[in-house]
Amino acid sequence: MIYEVLLLVVLVALIRKGSVQRLSSTDIKKPYLMITSLLVQLAVMYLYDRSQFIGQTFSIWIILSYLMLAYSSWCNRNLPGFKLFGIGMFLNFLAIAVNGGRMPVSVDALEWAGLSWYIPALIEGVTKHQPLTEVTYLSFLADIIPLRPPFVFSSMVVSVGDIAVTLGISRFVYIRMTR
Predict the structure, then answer these.
(1) I want to staple 106 with a disulfide (CB 3.0 to 4.6 A). Which of 101, 113, 133, 144 is the partner?
(2) Which of 71-80, 118-127, 154-163 shows the lowest per-residue confidence on average (mean pLDDT)?
(3) How many angstroms separate the CA atoms of 109 and 91, rounded?
(4) pLDDT computed for residue 41 by the predictor
């Protein structure tokens, strides 16, 4: 979802005489923490079923990556959109932290979005997600909103936190490109 919205935001900003150069000249504090956070998440997802150590400590790594992202967001809270980004990230972190380190996702929403192929991996526990059940805490923060084309490039299920993150990043990009 974030790519689709960002593409639209960049196009609108360019139509309104925005500049990618202005965006690139923004002084973001602690960018290395943001990048490291994303790299940690990618690495632990890739190594999950390839490394027993990662498999046993998966939740710790995911939570650690969110803490790094939270700190870097806090350091940039004065930039437009970063407060909304931080709120969305916190909502996702909260859903993940209270549910054992994995984001709950609605099986019904996956089916509606045409993502039934993902359900066996979800149930097997080899993803960063877990099935949303009646014992899921804060289920309203889970991935429960199904999206499919033409609204997005590919089908997905998102959370309220994902929407806030997307809106925050989009606000940042638009304002920085058009100022």
Answers:
(1) 144
(2) 118-127
(3) 19
(4) 85
The answer to whether 70 and 34 are in contact (CB under 8 A) is no
Cβ atoms of 37 and 72 within 8 Å: the answer is yes
DSSP state, 51?
A: -
Q: Looking at residue 125, what is its pLDDT? A: 75
Helices 82-97 & 160-178, crossing angle to 10 degrees?
A: 160
Tokens of 76: 């940039």
Q: How many Å is the maximal CA-CA distance in the chain? A: 52
Pairing, β 145-147 against β 156-158: antiparallel
Question: Cα-atom radius of gyration of the chain, to the nearest Å?
Answer: 17
Q: At residue 150, what are phi and psi to the nearest 5 degrees?
A: -95, 5
Question: Residue 97: which residues within 8 A CB-CB, separation 6 or more?
Answer: 63, 66
The domain tally of the chain equals 1
